[in-house]
């Protein structure tokens, strides 16, 4: 079963974020607290949204998808950015990931989002194969750029004094 996340799911979402970070070899970077996730998902307005995958037989939470809207100046429409998709190892290959993605794709269609985008690590061959099986196009010509920590602070310090 796929359902919208509720406030009561926040501790489980945080646990799965840490599991995903461990899988991606970056557990030390997963620092979000329950309160930060609660504000992000259920604040006014929410910064992001999440779906929960539950095992039909046991009701156990086995995965989640966390997303937020984007905007394309080229199409003039909103799109969806999938920040995290995670299915616990013991529940993989049972259709939960496909059901989460299909639910998000249906939301895109319903809300007029023309693009549904996410990132995948180049070494994650199982995920890449799965995404390709769905018809996802891998955009090799794009490189993700990130500023954080000191470089972000350094660039911010260069902002004009009257910057909004």
From TrEMBL:
**Which molecular-function annotations from GO does this UniProt entry contain?**
N-acetyltransferase activity
Keywords, A to Z, come to: Acyltransferase, Coiled coil, Transferase
Q: N-acetyltransferase domain: which residues?
A: 1-157
Q: Which residues form a coiled coil?
A: 13-40
Family annotation (Pfam families)? Acetyltransf_1
Q: Which sequence ranges are marked TM in the entry?
A: none
Q: Which organism is it from?
A: Streptomyces lasalocidi
UniProt family annotation: Belongs to the acetyltransferase family.
InterPro entries in alphabetical order = Acyl_CoA_acyltransferase (IPR016181), Diverse_Substrate_AcTransf (IPR051016), GNAT_dom (IPR000182)
Q: What is this protein called?
A: GNAT family N-acetyltransferase
In the record, what lineage is assigned to the organism producing the protein?
Answer: Bacteria, Bacillati, Actinomycetota, Actinomycetes, Kitasatosporales
């Amino acid at each position: 079963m796929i359902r919208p996340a509720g406030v009561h799911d926040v501790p489980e979402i945080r646990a799965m974020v840490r599991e995903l970070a461990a899988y991606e070899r970056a557990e030390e970077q997963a620092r979000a607290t329950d309160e930060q996730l609660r504000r992000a998902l259920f604040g006014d307005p929410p910064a992001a949204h999440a779906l929960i995958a539950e095992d039909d037989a046991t009701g156990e939470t086995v995965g989640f998808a966390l997303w937020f809207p984007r905007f394309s100046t080229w199409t003039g429409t909103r799109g969806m950015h999938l920040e995290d998709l995670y299915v616990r190892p013991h529940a993989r290959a049972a259709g939960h990931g496909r059901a989460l993605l299909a639910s998000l794709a249906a939301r895109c269609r319903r809300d007029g989002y023309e693009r549904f985008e996410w990132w995948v690590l180049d070494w994650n061959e199982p995920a890449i194969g799965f995404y390709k099986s769905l018809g996802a196009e891998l955009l090799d010509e794009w490189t993700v750029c990130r500023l954080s920590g000191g470089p972000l602070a350094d660039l911010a310090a260069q902002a004009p004094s009257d910057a909004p």
